[in-house]
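User: Structure please.
Assistant: Input sequence and predicted structure:
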Amino acid sequence: MRDIVFTRRSGWLPHVIREDGELKLTLGAGADANHEPRTFTFSIGEAHLAVIREDLARHLLLWSAVLPLCDAAGTRGRFDESAAVALLDPILLSARADVDALFQRIRWDRGRLIAHGADIGLLERGQVCAAMRTATEASNGKRVQEYQADRRRAERGAVPGPLDAAILMYTGQYLHGATVPRRMPDAVAPALLPEVMRVIATAEQACAGIRIGRDPRRGKRATDKRDWDRMAATVDEAVRRAHPELVDDAVRTVSFLMCSEAADRSRSTPMEDEEAAGDRADFGGSARKTALSFTDDKGVGKKWLPDNPRTASAAFWEFVGDRSAADNEVFTIEDEERGEGIQLHFYADSIARVTTAHEGEGGSDARYRVEYSLVDGIGGYRNLVSAFVRGGCAALEQHGSWLSDAAEFERARRRRDAE
């Protein structure tokens, strides 16, 4: 038969039960092989119960010392009950100085004490009993997260000042640097918010007019990494120049915020707005007189007709965004009426233009001229596609250096990749 003898309002703290007439401390920790919580139990005496009942600090200290034993038991290992019992007198019944000395020798869960209000500075100096004067029964998990974040920064030699911390709070990245930043003014102390907003204003002015385009090669919502890096560098330089006192973490979170917001705006922009204005004015929209065929490396195709209200460039890049994948990186645009086309090789940052050199006669096959050129990122691809849409292969002459010898081109590509 089991009866609960003592428990605190916070249900996670170990509670005392009486089982078959014997007092025991029981606590939940970890999980078993079936992901169910494990429960650990060990015997205590009446004197231990009296201290647990009256002294929250000692109760918490005992909990923090027993938890590593639970961790050592794992999902199915044996709990070292003897080691747990051996902690009772030294923690619950000994003088404060002896308790401090004990915690210098044993493993204990520092985060558990911090969550319950322990003074972090005193804990760091080994004064665990004094640190527990501020202990509370209620737990604050965010306090532990902030402590762990500070420890990680300290290990990297980055110690944020009050303004640095406020900026990280504003972007929601104080606890986790990998979190997508957002604007959270309510998270910042009112006294520091004006200073934070001055830093944000510096960043906004620096990147005004800079945009991050999409990169359909990597999917419908992917954005151009080069544009991102360019904006980040611009913001970093401006913020460091205007606010040299800021640590790297604070500067990075501001540039991350600016880039994330710009990328979100790009993802919500219609594909037509991504194209140069000249596409629609010349041959990009309904002004183009001949149809185009788009195909990918899997044999899937799509037709664009001159009466389509969308630009040919926009329709093509949407097709790429829908179809591009790690095993699908070759896309073609063909103008059958003109007998020419371009083939984009995303895996190699290159392009081929194909023109009809000699029409087939008497059942013979037509002969084609194939020329190759290197491409500089998604921006280069966009320029080439737009030029082809406006004026066919002839319009590509001014874009890049074209080689008809495939072997010579391959050597050029390898030289570029080796740089």
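Residues 248-267 form the longest helix (20 residues).
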